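Sample pair:
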Amino acid sequence: MDELLQYGGEDYSMEIPAPGKANAALAENGSNPAEARQWLPPDNDEPGFSWPDEGGTVSKSAAETGAGGYYVLIKNLSTFFKSSDSDSSTLAENQKCVLSPNAKYKTLAMPDFYGDHVVAELDAAASTCPFTKGYIYMPHVSATSAGGASQLPANIRAFLDTLAHAEGTEENYNLMFTFAEFKDYKDHPRDRQCSGKLCSDAAGRYQFLSKTWDPLAEDLGLKDFTPPNQDKAVLELIRRAGAYTAVSKSSEYANFTKALNKLNGIWASLPGSPYGQPTHSTASLWNFYKKSLAKYK
């Protein structure tokens, strides 16, 4: 880890220690479970993404969805607006109503998040439901006025999808290290869990350790652990690692692999990670990335 902390060069690729050395660096006392580690790079001058609410230009995709008012945009499928976060199959007909594919629904306030759902108060004119405040399954939502990944360019969005795939979280922002779920996004859950010989309080789509999340949240002024803030924090982490430029051009294989090499000290699932945990191959991640990128083109 000393080499990681000294990193400051643009083309740095970490020399990977032998697995035995990596595990020894993680072990605490004798046979006690190892504690997961995550490198937090120091701040630097690497450029990053300028989010719309920070004075940047709204991306084309966000502009096309009508950014500027409160809304929820549904993906290319039908889904339900529900009176609770229960599975739609368990709800009575008067507890759910259909939302149309690709439809944008105006909301009376900024959408919120609870577990794996978006919580929205729809404009009364936008729904024939007997209720106006309810839940929408988050993986069925393309974008909301709360911001987040939907505001990002296609290359970056596909790379974040790939990172989440490597970490095993996919589209889910409410998973902990053992894939247990949390509901409340008021703060990082800080719930240390163990699996096998490894313990971690990693949480969220990008599996932030609380020790990583706290300084990022303070520096960025993030008040909660909601999905849009997780997206902001992960891009800041990528920027500090000197990988943002490579990620922004990651549709080129050389930049994709360059980004992985700069980030494998942060995420243990990436190829070449020094932490002695199972990793994905570069080839498998590249194949996933290309499929994800095609969705945003």
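The two ends are 38 Å apart (CA to CA).
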